[in-house]
Write a structure and sequence with these properties.
About 45% of the residues lie in helices and about 20% in strands. Strands 1-2-4-3 form a four-stranded antiparallel β-sheet. A hairpin with a 6-residue loop joins β1 and β2. The radius of gyration is 12 Å and the shape is globular.
Length: about 100
C-alpha cells in the first residue's frame, strides 16, 4: 500500500530533479497528485502544471480543504504561494512553487 510520504516524495522529486519533463512526466505527476488527494478524501476543482516552471496549481471547493492540503504540503517541505495570477480563487487555491532545500 502506498503511503502519504510515497506520494509526496514523488511530487517532490518531480519539482526538484526533473529538469526537462516530458508530457508523460506531467501526466504521471498529475495522477500522483490525484491519488494523494483521494487518500485525503479531498477532490480538487482545478489542477494544472505550469509547463515553463513546473509550478503545480491546485484549487479546491472550500477554504478548509485548501488549508488542510496546503498545511500537509508545507509541513513536508513544499513551498506554496496564493498570490498568483491565473488562480480561480485566491481563497481556495494555491500554487506549489518549489521545495525547501
Amino acid at each position: 500500500m502506498k503511503t502519504k510520504n510515497f506520494y509526496l516524495d514523488e511530487i517532490k522529486d518531480f519539482i526538484k530533479y526533473d529538469d526537462s519533463p516530458t508530457e508523460f512526466d506531467f501526466v504521471k505527476t498529475m495522477a500522483t497528485i490525484n491519488e494523494f488527494l483521494e487518500t485525503q478524501k479531498i477532490k480538487c476543482v482545478f489542477k494544472d502544471i505550469n509547463i515553463y516552471n513546473k509550478n503545480i496549481i491546485l484549487d479546491f471547493k472550500t477554504y478548509n480543504q485548501r488549508k488542510i492540503i496546503e498545511n500537509i504540503l508545507n509541513e513536508y517541505g513544499f513551498v506554496t504561494k496564493t498570490e498568483a495570477n491565473g488562480l480561480y480563487s485566491k481563497n481556495t487555491g494555491f500554487w506549489i512553487v518549489g521545495v525547501k532545500e
